[in-house]
Design brief:
With 572 residues, the chain is an alpha+beta fold. The chain has 2 domains: 104 residues, no CATH class; 401 residues, Methylamine Dehydrogenase, Chain H (7 Propeller). It has 10 helices and 30 strands. It has a 4-stranded antiparallel sheet with strand order 1-2-3-4, with no helix packed on it. The protein has a 4-stranded antiparallel sheet with strand order 5-6-7-8, with no helix packed on it. A 4-stranded antiparallel sheet has the order 9-10-11-14, with no helix packed on it. A hairpin with a 4-residue loop joins strand 16 and strand 17. The longest helix has 19 residues. The relative contact order is 0.08.
Length: 572
Amino acid sequence: MRCELIFKNTRAEPIFFQRNMAGIAALTALRAAARECQLAAPSFSDEQAAQGLAITDELRAHFLPPTSSAQAASPLLQLPSELLAVILSSLDIHDLARLAATCSSLCRDAPTPPPPPRQIGPVEMELRRRAESRGLLVGSALRKGATSWVACLLKRDRRDAQMRQVPLAVGHEHSLFVDKGGRLLTCGSEFGSAPLLGHAVDPAAVPYAHREIGPPTPVPSMQDRRIISVASSEKTHCLALGAEGEVYSWGAGAYGALGHGDDDARAVPCRIEMLSRIEHIAAGPNWTSAAVDEKGRLFTWGRASFFDEEEDEDGELEECERPSGLGYELSTDTDRQPTPKRVDTLSQERVVGVALGEGFTLVVTDAGAVFSFGFSWLGALGHGSLVSEVLPRRVEALAQTRRRFVAVAAGDQHALALTEEGELYGWGDAEANGHGREERTPQQVAALIGQRVKLVNAQVSASCAVTEKGELFTWGGCSVRGNLRFREPPNTPMRVEGLSGVEVAAVAIGRMHTLAAAADGVVWAFDHRSAFGLDASGLSTSGPVRTFAPIPGPMRTFAPIPTLRARVLNSP
């Protein structure tokens, strides 16, 4: 390219040159050389070209750092940007095209400058502080479709609290409630061998006596305690979580399921001294219990193993020992862990949720991973086989979805996992996994695609889910679960039409009955009346704790339990 193009039209004087006298001198010399070129013939001598290059080098030395040999191959790039802009402005479109074709550095698009640091407001700062104080991962990018960090963090904080603060729990024929004042209430039936109602009755005095409590009644020994969460196995024991992170247990104590170091039953809630600052609790059907503390550490206790039968190579039944889902090895001469013990193999993970099935356990971590361990009934561990796992193992089929999971639920032989986006995955037993067929690896529940599920619950062979709109879906065995259009219980999710217009904020499903708390705290009940204290007319009985005959027949639609208001977090 002709050298005069470099020096043509260099009349503009950049502002930053004015601040440097040496730069002004070099620019003056460059202008003089340019005038000489304009007066000369169309081509000029090598001496004139060398003079121009020398002046350019002088300018570069004043305003640019030393260049590498690679950069020196493109002298134009070494000029101050203002001077280069003046030179390029004098070129017509054809010369610009030639320049781009002969100099790839000039043709290359400049890198996009990084965006300026985002200003974080005080509300977002506080929400981040709260999440970090609990060890939760906030992340650096908004999830797909989100536009506000504050809205996302508020929703996550509410969802996490909703997962921790469970105001309802059901067993075979009993119910547990937490009312708006944080009181623990129970009602239903119990036997002396398993005093599940928590009232002061000595199980040794009247063994195996059948007792019932009418309406949901405050547990006398817990009147000075504020409770935020409850959990119950089907027939053996119950747990309650206090506002200060303390855990109480009562019921049958076989295999150390109550966590007090013995096998004794407790007729009233007793604090588990080894646990403190707990955020999540679970009571399993196989004499097992679990708790997660504020640091994300998982503790389990209770039955360590049980015996089952399977066919050998000759088709004969033989007795086999199965793990119960505690998550650690115990000595061969014991089948119990009578006090809470940490699951050390998850020490590198921060557990935020746990669910106990019939001999197996599911946990979900703050990073969104799901682990399972125990006995793989019908593929309930989700690993694609019937092989048991004594130690926690990540469910790889869920990891491959590249989704972040936030909650898990478990029945006798099936399991559920919920993503942050509200997608539900199920596996295990065909009756309640949501697919209507047995699945040994997790699959998304097709019937709920597009529903954005926010809560899941499971027990025995039944499951339920609550959507962000507050609609309740149920499926599985034991009863019709409020779906009166079906003679047989549906094995895929169906919306409960009996709660149309009710915004459900919490739910608990069991073998004999189902409870749902609305966003205003009103508790709705379905099926076995004696389990939640309703008489034959559907009205709550009144009076103190008393004994009465079981009320026959199920209730055919959901009905509110009068005067009871559960402690629920209003839906976002």
